[in-house]
């Protein structure tokens, strides 16, 4: 991807000189800090920025953007660096704006179930802050990501089946445009029909249209009760059919996760569990005490009808934690499953009716390509991840992994699905956008050109 | 608004000549059909298009758009004509594309809880089609609007507190761009992080970026049980506080509507009811039998704590219909409340913590201006409507109504609210967008210019 873009050496040198004067110790060019700020978990090479600036305010961001705009220098926003598709790579060099120090929770409006935060606030930090007020922020992508980054990539995760994705949980954004102007995309009302939905346009724009410097976020009341459940299935089809029936029945599951056979095997080994080594569903129910009991029982009946076994549910916090242990440890379990390997996480999302077929085909394809890649899925949404366990010094295996990712994306798109349910496009999924959306990508290009005509905002990503 | 825009007389004449040849009887220029297609319910004058074309396919729409693009002639999409802010007015003349004959339900995917429809399908038509499959489409803006129009205005209504707005219920769109290209904004997966959210950009764009010719829509399973409830309150504050507590407690109310004292009085007179003439909440609960009973009881306890009286709930369909009669008849009740008057509906939306204050201030302002305007609100969202009952031949009263609408919008914006929660901008709310969103409106202008450089798509609306 880097080859498409030319480095503006003169502009970068000039801008760096100015910014160094202005930001002092908050301007850094050491190799390790630059490398930490430009990386990817795919096989695309790391592309460090030329400098990292630690912003502490919207004004700081504006200052950086104006200098970079004047000298046509790329700007890449950085939160916690947990994105997976090379979103923070500096494909043409430039300046990484690290917003991790912009981590203040500016207001919590408990009556309105919303809060206003800076972009470097992480989801765990927010939830710790909210707990005493009986509120929580539901989106859980796994990593303790920053809320700015989660908005920029349209993140979701395990709770999305009940609470939606970042597009549903953000009311409005403050953003610095490529020319340094600061806009607010909406007010604090829970809904609005006032003009184009700029909030949703910036959510998922991956820093290519501007830098998010403040977010107004919808919250949820902590439910009176939570219950967790596990159930094993003879095959992926049975598990998926159970999910479909559960959702059709209107059971408001908060989480419904699938682990395939390989992932269960990895979890048994890593977490010293004795789960049947067949596909497993893990669930969480939120509601009143009576409601979570009812939800768990209805689910159990549906699962039993299609051959689900070892169904267990509990409302006890300790036992819930234990049941979810396997899910929380999947990444480490996968790595331990093949010592020395790196995990290349890729995600696709298909209509739920096609999920079993897609997962099964992926399993066959991995066998054909002699790859090991446990599967975990947010199956209520039809979204699943393969963690391809690759020895990165084995060029042939890396090539086969690339072949698999290409095949998986094409297969998902062919099933009316998407090349990314929640990770975003970054560098890794650019090749599939055209196949998925055709001429609609031209509209994206037109919007990008209209808002960022000099292409200084995270160039080489999405479009 | 019309004065801002110049009519392109030569282009219109040429395009009409070509289109008449191509569409035969589906091309109409009679005065009554033109007047029906260019109207408003505000005091802005009716602005009929020069011709109306009844499209039957995406290809028809493409044909019209290409001819109009060549000759730079305005195109205004028309569904059922139930928009409220002059959205279908032809401010600079041109062609109205009526999509009401594009009313086929193309596919229902019950396992995926979605369907694919043409834009002229109305919400009632869709729900009748779905009923046998145990599915429903939840958005109810009151009027039996077309789904294309509902998407174009980002409609919502009584069920939005539980099921969201059109932005939450549309998975993807097919649209004809201003140059005649046809795009699809997404696939059928329930979520995606694949590039800019063009689906949400087109939802609420009011026909200014392209013409929606197909929608993929999320559906819900019909709940096992529904229950309705009513409760009277000594004042609007008590009613609003009950709503806030109910939502904070996580009671998943499906509908929670406020009628103010004037509206209850109007309903009593019109529907021969004997409700206490104080603010009233009407609710609906969806879930299992046990869950709706529990929801109603929790709500009843919360309401009793703040002085709610005459609380009644029922799960019987007949009694539910009776309880909701008042809500369904509000428009007619309001008209009957002042015989001879027209109802000018306006809507704003504020954070729910400010709702009581906003409604009370509106009531005082109406008294000060000697206006009659019953209030109905989707209070779970902080959204409310005033139906200003105006004698349209009384210029002074019309002027006072305009003053009220201006005051109401400024007041809502000052409370971190929006000038329109669900009706859209059209012509009527353009004046308030800048006050609400500042420089963000420049970004809207840039997007409009990038996608529709000749400003042929519903000119004079939004931006």
Give short descriptive properties of this protein.
homodimer, 463 residues, alpha+beta, Uridine Diphospho-n-acetylenolpyruvylglucosamine Reductase, domain 2, Uridine Diphospho-n-acetylenolpyruvylglucosamine Reductase, domain 3, Alpha-Beta Plaits, 4 domains, seven-stranded antiparallel sheet, five-stranded antiparallel sheet, 17 helices, globular
Summary, kept brief:
The structure is a homodimer of 463-residue chains. The first copy, chain A, has 463 residues and is α+β, with helices and mostly antiparallel strands. The first copy, chain A, has 17 helices and 18 strands.
Q: Describe the global form of chain A.
A: globular
Which percent range fits the helix content of chain A? 25-40%
Task: Characterize the main sheet of chain A.
Answer: 7 strands, antiparallel
How far is it from the N-terminal to the C-terminal residue of chain A, by CA?
11 Å
Number of domains of chain A: 4
The proportion of strand residues of chain A reads: 15-25%
Largest interface, and how many residues on either side?
Answer: A-B, 98 and 98 residues
Strand order of the largest sheet of chain A: 15-12-14-13-17-18-16
CATH topology of the largest domain in chain A: Uridine Diphospho-n-acetylenolpyruvylglucosamine Reductase, domain 3
CATH architecture of the largest domain in chain A: 2-Layer Sandwich
Rg from Cα of chain A: 22 Å
* Unreliable residue runs of chain A: none
Task: Please report the total strand number of chain A as a whole number.
Answer: 18
SS-derived structural category of chain A: alpha+beta
Quaternary status = homodimer
What is the C-level CATH assignment of the largest domain in chain A? Alpha Beta
Overall average pLDDT of chain A: 95
Number of helices of chain A: 17
